[in-house]
Design a protein that fits this description.
Largest sheet: none
Radius of gyration: 25 Å
Shape: flat
Number of helices: 11
Structural class: mainly alpha
Number of domains: 3
Protein name: Zinc finger BED domain-containing protein 1
GO cellular component, one term: nucleus
GO molecular function, one term: protein dimerization activity
Number of strands: 0
Distance between the termini: 50 Å
Oligomer: single chain
Strand content: under 5%
């Protein structure tokens, strides 16, 4: 029969594992942006566990080990998630998070530099396209000069520190509510920060974990079985696609 001490230990362990389970579930989604959530949610997880009031010695030992493993796994010298460019860039460009959850100013600076370079590369590509269009004979228009000035000004919009003004303005703006959809927010902001928008859209499609792809392989395994080994790839893809649709589309 379980004693009062046993129940207290189990209660403490459940309190420790509950936020871990929630994090695992949230970052394993596939219907929303997950890549930009990794750094913020890990920071929230570690801080939440640090605030727990653990009473028993055994559960306290477990608590310390969990925290130690999280620190080593996500904030270790060779495994700091903030140094991962995919995670750091997507987090900085998420209007809900930006720089809030970074513990390393160096990681923020590095990510900003990479974003700035990506924006400059996009600008150069835009300039090349514009120059190609300029060489194409076109109707004489007084406003052609205006269009050329816009391109020229966008290519020379860096501040002395090397950070594009557009990026600096975005990062200095207030964060939005965590419940907001970053894709919908960026649809409203894309006319204000067009160059930042282009970079953000490239990074938001990155999934935070391999769980969605593992689900896809599991679904494929259910479709292509020993009894249906002769099914063709096109038909299998169609069945898997139909099976992935939300229930609302079947009503």
């Amino acid at each position: 029969m379980s004693t009062h001490t046993d129940l207290q230990i189990l209660k403490d362990i459940c309190a420790i594992l509950r936020p871990v389970e929630r994090v695992t579930t949230e970052i394993s989604g596939e219907l929303y942006v997950t890549c930009s959530k990794i750094i913020p949610i890990i920071n929230c997880l570690i801080r939440t566990l640090e605030k727990l009031d653990i009473t028993h010695e055994i559960s306290e030992c477990f608590h310390k080990n969990v925290l130690l493993q999280l620190q080593n796994r996500f904030r270790g010298k060779d495994s700091n998630i903030e140094t991962n460019s995919f995670l750091s860039i997507s987090t900085l460009l998420d209007p809900r998070f930006k720089k809030l959850h970074f513990s390393s100013s160096l990681a923020v600076s590095t990510a900003i530099s990479k974003i700035s370079q990506l924006m400059k590369n996009n600008q150069i590509e835009t300039q090349c396209n514009v120059e190609e269009n300029i060489n194409i004979p076109r109707k004489e228009d007084l406003w052609n000069i205006h269009d050329e000035l816009i391109v020229s000004s966008s290519l020379n919009s860096d501040e002395p520190g090397g950070i594009p003004i557009e990026l600096r303005q975005f990062l200095n703006a207030n964060v939005v509510s965590r419940s907001e959809d970053p894709f919908k927010i960026w649809q409203k902001l894309k006319d204000v920060y067009p160059m930042v928008y282009e970079v953000a859209m490239k990074y938001f499609v990155i999934v935070g974990t391999s769980v969605p792809s593992e689900r896809l392989f599991s679904a494929a395994g259910n479709v292509i079985s020993m009894k249906r080994s002769k099914i063709k790839g096109k038909r299998a893809s169609q069945i898997i696609f139909l099976g992935s649709l939300p229930k609302k589309y079947w009503k």
